[in-house]
Design brief:
- The protein is an all-alpha fold and about 300 residues long.
- The chain has helices at about 1-25, 30-55, 55-60, 65-85, 90-100, 105-120, 125-150, 155-170, 170-185, 190-200, 205-215, 225-250, 255-265, 270-280, 280-310.
- The mean pLDDT is about 85.
Length: about 300
């Protein structure tokens, strides 16, 4: 248990530091937004670019891991959407709820956690999972929302919206650019590596403090509507993904453990940003993020304990 706490306590301490700095007004109301921009536009892109630029395509071509992690995300997303639609919720609202129940916080928590628990090798599955969540899951949710709003917008515009958003997303551009650089066979100059290392080193503390700043913002709305989504995210998704990784696809230990760990992460900020953009379900999405982050201390502890005992 002490080894589990040794991994998780520093992570949650950084989140708490951001939370307390905002609540005590040591960092102002714009701090969450500005630090988030710093992480999204500089730190994470540097880390992702370096990871792909110094690796090979073979390292990242892991069809079993993709099937287990992406399969878990998609099954949870589809099941939650059908459940919400049967409750007579609109397609846009059901889509945001489904995203809240399946969108793991792979960028802000997954990458730091995998590095701490699995070592440098853990960066590869964390990177793949981030691309799955950011590119695939988010895009599917946007298309579903736009399809539900087809009286206001055409489906063609939905596709264009997704493609435009992905083309502007640094978390998509950076790893793709790194992969293209790796394909040239050229190494990165020493000065470029040092530059990337300095920025990448700031990813873990800044991302976690930024998450704490976001969670410290006043959460509006009732929590009751978020609890079912939290249970699906924190219990259903890890169980389903773990079953796929260990039993169905029988992945190597590193990749199976990474799939389980990444699926047990709390809900990321993507659903809230989407809910805010479409002015739908924002209170439920923000509550889901807050509650799942608090609950993830238990789910992640259980996963790390399982990984440690099964090694």
């Amino acid at each position: 248990m002490s080894s589990v706490l040794a991994v998780l306590v520093p992570i949650f301490a950084l989140i708490l530091a951001g939370f307390l700095c905002r609540r005590s007004n040591r960092l102002g109301p714009g701090a969450a937004s500005e630090m988030n921009k710093f992480v999204v536009w500089l730190c994470l892109p540097a880390l992702l670019f370096k990871a792909t630029a110094t690796s090979s395509w073979a390292v990242f071509w892991q069809p079993g891991f993709l099937a287990a992690f992406a399969g878990g995300c998609l099954l949870i997303f589809a099941t939650t959407m059908i459940w919400r639609l049967r409750q007579r919720r609109s397609l846009p609202a059901a889509s945001i709820d489904a995203l809240s129940a399946s969108y793991a916080n792979t960028g802000y928590m997954g990458i730091p956690l995998c590095l701490l628990v699995l070592g440098e090798e853990g960066l590869e599955p964390a990177l793949i999972a981030t691309l799955v969540v950011v590119c695939m899951l988010f895009a599917i949710a946007v298309i579903c929302i736009e399809a539900g709003l087809q009286n206001e917008r055409s489906l063609g515009r939905a596709v264009l919206t997704v493609l435009t958003a992905l083309a502007k997303n640094p978390l998509v551009i950076a790893p793709l650019a790194g992969a293209l650089w790796a394909a040239t066979g050229l190494g990165l100059p020493a000065m470029a590596l040092r530059f990337l290392d300095l920025l990448a080193a700031a990813t873990v503390p800044c991302a976690l403090v930024s998450l704490g700043l976001f969670l410290a913002q006043r959460q509006e709305g009732e929590a009751a509507g978020a609890w079912p989504l939290v249970i699906v995210k924190m219990v259903g998704q890890p169980l389903l993904t773990g079953f796929l990784a260990y039993r169905v696809f029988q992945l190597p230990p590193l990749w199976a453990n990474a799939a389980l760990l990444l699926s047990a992460l709390p809900t990321g900020t993507g659903p809230f940003m989407l809910a805010e953009y479409y002015a739908r379900e924002a209170p439920v999405a923000s509550r889901t993020i807050l509650i799942s982050t608090l609950c993830s201390l238990a789910s992640l502890s259980a996963c790390i304990y399982w990984i440690g005992n099964s090694a």
